[in-house]
Amino acid sequence: MNGWILAATAVLGGGGAAALWGVSTGPTSRRVLAQNLTTSALCPALLLLAQGYGRPSYVDLALLLALLGPVGTLVFARLLADELAREHPGGWAPTWAAAVVGTAVVVALCVAGGPGRAMAKLLVTGALLIGGNVIATRAVAGGFREVRRG
Fold first, then answer.
1. φ, ψ dihedrals at 145, nearest 5°
2. Could you tell me where the beta strands, DSSP code E, fall in 4-108?
3. 142: closest CA among 94, 82, 98?
4. What are phi and psi of 52, to 5 degrees?
5. How far apart are CA 51 and CA 61, in angstroms?
6. Would you say 55 and 25 are in contact if contact means Cβ atoms under 8 Å apart?
7. Which pTM does this prediction carry?
8. By the 8 A CB rule, do 106 and 123 touch?
9. Where are the alpha helices (H) located in 25-55, listed in sequence order?
10. Residue 133, CB half-sphere, CA atoms under 13 Å: how many?
11. How far is CA 120 from CA 66, 75, 110, in A?
12. pLDDT at 17 over 70
């Protein structure tokens, strides 16, 4: 076991425990935000495992997850809009914590891998992961005022 795999285990353990707790307890808003947090924990872990095992195909899976995970959260937010509007969820602390973890993982892997196509793929994955999860959390937490006005 090397440091990359150990870091992936820590990310999966911490993020997975928080997501499992959120999905299994509380109101609907917490459950939808926890589903979003699952993507935020699993994607950096896949990136770390790709580096640890030397399998670049894991990066492709992380890229796909970073693209589709927030889309799934937005679908749930749309389907449960009436219920989420009554609850007014927060959820910004776990979202920003996941964004910090995702940024740290992407930066560490870019430094370790050096410049090239792999670095570009890591940067796109990181941008999709962080941007998508922030937008999805904002949509679950009440949406965007400008969009609601028309």
1. -60, -40
2. none
3. 82
4. -65, -40
5. 13
6. no
7. 0.87
8. yes
9. 28-53
10. 32
11. 15, 28, 9
12. yes
